[in-house]
């Protein structure tokens, strides 16, 4: 019996260790790039002079919003400028921004496969008549530059397939569970198989169903079939919670929060927020909601302070170009991370679990705690509450130099004497060294 027990414990430990190690890199990474690029990119958010503003107004939803026929929508493929499209540039931009992984839309809700699929004819190569497989080129560029690659795949909504789910299904058609299963077995599963077979190592499969599967047409077995396929073909590939299974299900490797939803409490398991720099995910020529660089810093750092990460989206144009507004923000963040990455990569929330100081956020890495100061205190005193241990030393990080600061600790409140001016234009860092936090 004892040996049975020890084998059981060993097995449990092994399986735990396995899941733990599969997500290690993801929890180190903290910052990745999302790319939304498809036929909708060519519409640029407008259709026959109409820029409809009801619903979510996402540019990538234009086919649905403007009730465009499959055929007419397919003609957008003619507007792609193949001479100018170089997926490697996206990878280089992600690196420059300090991002550690990249998630590409392989098939969005419009049902168009971006790669050269053998499942059906509704793919970018077939519709455009070009022999380019952007997914293949992107996979090669990611390998070349040491960038982890993930695929977004819209498994639930597919506006092209007669038997898949349509967001507006009650009004437009009715699909039986049997019909839905035909879509699942004849389109989704074979396409997933292609993506997991033909493009080398895939680090993440990012699904997009934001309500629990019980409220949808999906049967649990169908989702588990996708999980099995992934585990069989790519054992290290991570699966996000928008597959539709609960976050604590053994199949789900990390939780995806709502779009642009940032946590407000510490979350112990791996998680990320998908975020936009603008409003739309796909390219829109009518974008009016560019966020400031500071807002994006805050999205990233507040998430890391609560143990999570940020997958930040770009929506390149149909000629591959990334909007300048995105590039300039990505480069600012990349320059900062190049100097201060130790406070983000591999960093966690602090055991203090405090956040929302009036000056900014805390992260921790090994035995160091980092104060990310967004608002430089006017009295030049940084107050950190809730610290029971005694810091060995406290420094301001300036470029890559450490400038020693004096401080006083009264009970669990530390008062740090700051330099007279902020040490960085965006986020100034103060590093607290401990023997043990
Ligand atoms: C979905 C897509 O519809 C959208 O086009 C984009 O791809 C984005 C990443 O995901 O949009 C969502 C998903 C979830 C919520 C809202 C919009 N949500 O949880 O509120």
TrEMBL record:
<protein>
    <recommendedName>
        <fullName>alpha-L-fucosidase</fullName>
        <ecNumber>3.2.1.51</ecNumber>
    </recommendedName>
</protein>
<comment type="function">
    <text>Alpha-L-fucosidase is responsible for hydrolyzing the alpha-1,6-linked fucose joined to the reducing-end N-acetylglucosamine of the carbohydrate moieties of glycoproteins.</text>
</comment>
<keyword id="KW-0378">Hydrolase</keyword>
<dbReference type="GO" id="GO:0006004">
    <property type="term" value="P:fucose metabolic process"/>
</dbReference>
<dbReference type="GO" id="GO:0004560">
    <property type="term" value="F:alpha-L-fucosidase activity"/>
</dbReference>
<feature type="domain" description="Glycoside hydrolase family 29 N-terminal">
    <location>
        <begin position="21"/>
        <end position="342"/>
    </location>
</feature>
<dbReference type="GO" id="GO:0005764">
    <property type="term" value="C:lysosome"/>
</dbReference>
<keyword id="KW-0326">Glycosidase</keyword>
<comment type="similarity">
    <text>Belongs to the glycosyl hydrolase 29 family.</text>
</comment>
<dbReference type="GO" id="GO:0016139">
    <property type="term" value="P:glycoside catabolic process"/>
</dbReference>
<keyword id="KW-0732">Signal</keyword>
């Amino acid at each position: 019996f004892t040996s049975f027990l020890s084998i059981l414990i060993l097995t449990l430990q092994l399986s735990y260790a396995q899941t733990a190690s599969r997500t290690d890199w993801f929890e180190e990474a903290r910052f990745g790039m999302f790319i939304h690029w498809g036929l909708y990119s060519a519409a640029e958010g407008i259709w026959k002079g109409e820029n409809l503003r009801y619903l979510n107004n996402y540019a990538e939803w234009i086919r649905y919003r403007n009730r465009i026929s499959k055929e007419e929508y397919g003609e957008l493929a003619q507007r792609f400028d193949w001479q100018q499209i170089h997926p490697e540039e996206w990878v280089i931009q992600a690196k420059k921004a300090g991002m550690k992984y990249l998630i590409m839309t392989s098939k969005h809700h419009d049902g168009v496969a971006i790669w050269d699929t053998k499942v059906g004819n509704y793919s970018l190569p077939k519709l455009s008549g070009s022999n380019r497989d952007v997914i293949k080129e992107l996979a090669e560029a990611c390998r070349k530059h040491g960038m982890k690659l993930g695929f977004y795949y819209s498994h639930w909504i597919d506006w092209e397939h007669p038997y898949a789910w349509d967001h507006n299904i009650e009004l437009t058609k009715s699909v039986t569970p049997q019909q839905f299963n035909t879509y699942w077995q004849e389109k989704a599963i074979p396409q997933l198989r292609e993506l997991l077979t033909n493009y080398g190592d895939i680090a993440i499969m990012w699904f997009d169903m934001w309500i629990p599967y019980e409220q949808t047409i999906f049967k649990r077995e169908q989702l588990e079939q996708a999980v099995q396929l992934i585990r069989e073909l790519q054992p290290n590939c991570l699966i996000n919670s928008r597959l539709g299974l609960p976050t604590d299900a053994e199949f789900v490797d990390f939780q995806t929060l709502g779009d642009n939803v940032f946590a407000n409490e510490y979350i112990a398991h791996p998680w990320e927020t998908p975020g936009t720099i603008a409003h739309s995910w796909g390219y829109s020529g009518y974008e009016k909601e560019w966020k400031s660089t500071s807002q994006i810093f805050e999205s990233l750092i507040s998430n890391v302070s609560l143990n999570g990460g940020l997958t930040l989206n770009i929506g390149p144009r149909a000629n591959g170009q990334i909007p300048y507004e995105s590039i300039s923000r990505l480069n600012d963040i990349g320059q900062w991370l190049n100097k201060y990455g130790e406070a983000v990569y591999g960093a966690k929330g602090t055991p203090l679990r405090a956040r929302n100081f009036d000056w900014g956020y805390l992260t921790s890495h090994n035995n160091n705690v980092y104060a990310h100061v967004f608002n430089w205190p006017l009295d030049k005193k940084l107050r950190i509450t809730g610290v029971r241990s005694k810091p060995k030393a406290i420094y301001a990080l300036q470029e890559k130099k450490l400038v020693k600061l004096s401080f006083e600790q009264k009970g669990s409140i530390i008062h740090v004497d700051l330099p007279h001016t902020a040490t960085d234009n965006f986020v100034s860092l103060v590093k607290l060294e401990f023997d043990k936090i």
